[in-house]
Known about the structure:
6 helices
Amino acid sequence: MFLADCQARLAFDLIANTWNAVVVWSLRHGPRRPGELRAEIGGISPKVLTETLRRLEFNGLVDRRSYAEAPPRVEYALTDLGRTLLGPIEAFGVWAHDHADEVMDAQDRSTGCQSSTS
């Protein structure tokens, strides 16, 4: 029943996207400009960051604020709803830290089994 629940699927989809949780976590200390986010995150292209920020804004997790300056300035910040994801993201990060070696060992065993049967 849980897996068929549309609300649960929505939550899993928000976390499952590669960059959503990373961007939300990067915004935890306050508003940031896209360049600041790219520098902190590393490995994310400007296009993918823009797509991620738009997706998070669409879902009500991030606010976009533009300033009438020359050159124009844009900042992104977590909404109250976005802040509610920080606890689950942190918990998942702790789990990953605690169990990463076990997961990598399992992957190595799986890869070893596949290559020896080929």
